[in-house]
Amino acid sequence: MAAGMLRSDVLVVGAGPVGALLACILARAGRSVLLAERGRLRPDADANPDTRGYALSAGSVMLFEDLGYWPALMPFAAPIREIHVSREGTLGTVFMDSDSQGIRALGQVVPAARIDALLAGELARAGVRVLEETGFENLSAAKRGRRQAVVAGPDGDQRISARLIVAADGIHSAARAAAGIQVLRRRYDADALVFDVRPARAHRGRAFERFTPEGPLALLPQSDDRMNVVWVAPAEVCDRRQQLGDLDRLAELQQRFGWRLGRLQTAGGPVGRFPLEQLRARSLYAERLALVGNVAHALHPVAGQGLNLSLRDVAALAAGILRADDPGAREVLAAYAAAREADIGRVAAATDFLARGMLADGGLIRHVLGAGMWMLDRLEPLRRFFATEAMGLQPQPRHLLRELPAARKAPPRREASR
Ligand SMILES: Cc1cc2nc3c(=O)[nH]c(=O)nc-3n(C[C@H](O)[C@H](O)[C@H](O)COP(=O)(O)OP(=O)(O)OC[C@H]3O[C@@H](n4cnc5c(N)ncnc54)[C@H](O)[C@@H]3O)c2cc1C
Predict the structure, then answer these.
(1) Which CATH code for domain 2-186+276-409?
(2) Is the beta carbon of 54 within 6 A of some atom in ligand 1?
(3) pLDDT per residue over 37-76, tens digit each?
(4) Is the CB of 216 under 6 A from ligand 1?
(5) Which of 11, 18, 158 to mutate to test the pocket of ligand 1 (most atoms within 8 A of CB)?
(6) Distance CA 379, CA 394 (A)
(7) Is 111 in the pocket of ligand 1 (CB under 6 A)?
(8) CA atoms lying within 13 Å on the CB side of residue 328
(9) Which of 111, 310, 319, 343 has its CA at a distance of 20 to 30 angstroms from the CA of residue 284?
(10) Which InterPro entries match (predicted)?
(11) Domain extents for the chain?
């Protein structure tokens, strides 16, 4: 049963961190925004099952700061002061610290659940009309400067007419498929197990990335004494590790990671599991439709870059929309795509190189790390990569943020128009 037509300037499909943040920015700048989310928003961080801690770049933190959102995240954020990169079976370690880079931190780790909770509150404050439990179903062709989407919610099907539809519905995007945008996709034949541990020794802001024959293993500091573990391995190994009791899983982790943080102890909490894929959309836009975040590009988590890259999509698309009278005009979308191609291509290629190249038996890292510490200290390109990309220090082009003054200053606004 169709429940009539809703209208807005912009329809955002998907209330993950990317869609929700974009919707907040646009609504604060006075655009009418509808947000359709297949599931429910997650205002309660403690009830959120997402176990990930996101390593945010300086640029991403700057975006949250400029929007006035950082004070709410800061109490839960852990600065990364040092990064240690090593490979199982070799002695070398690549080491970076914030002091030698002349900065306060190499990044900040914030629990995904805290970002979800922040944005759930900000969506309401910004006046975004959110349709929860409402999944995108289909699209019609653009007509007279608008495009219609059909969404299915608790009251049946609903048509929404918008000048721009933004697909932010994640890697398996139905909106991208309905627009006929093709993707290049590759499974990594690996999943990530993500959970917290409590090391006996204080982490002191240290982050560890260890390359093992099965896949990378990262330990990221948290704002308390815990560390967030991202442990990548083939699916059958993840199956077995998931079935282990906490203590047996920890013993195996300890064997892989070593003793530099003393005994690793359980921190309670669930073990999350994430299948890993690489995806790149062949185009970032179609008629009156734009792709952002995981819909446009999904990356291996080895370098902690996916959300950082996606937030740069958000800043670029928001800047273009806020400069234009018509948010879905072809020039706006083409300029957005042109502005994003190089960054996406560079980060996707570097991440894939790390994920695959470092694993291969004859891979670069083996020779590099095997050669010993003296050589690593001189290996500036690798050091720079980890300092600028691996933990997401790639600076947010400040000019993108300057395009958002309306979003920064606008008072909370009324609900989106019907
Ligand atoms: C293990 C792991 C660790 C990571 N660590 C980092 C890190 O440290 N730093 C970093 O920068 N990045 C990291 N990432 C990447 C980061 O998770 C992604 O970049 C980010 O989740 C992308 O957000 P998104 O909003 O685009 O997509 P998603 O988070 O997938 O959100 C999509 C939303 O769309 C909704 N949806 C789906 N289908 C529909 C539909 N048909 N209709 C309506 N709504 C729909 C979903 O319910 C969901 O809410 C990591 C990823 C993994 C897997």
Answers:
(1) 3.50.50.60
(2) yes
(3) 999 999 999 999 999 999 998 889 989 999 999 999 999 9
(4) no
(5) 18
(6) 19
(7) no
(8) 23
(9) 111
(10) FAD-bd, FAD/NAD-bd_sf, UbiH/COQ6, UbiH/COQ6_monooxygenase
(11) 2-186+276-409
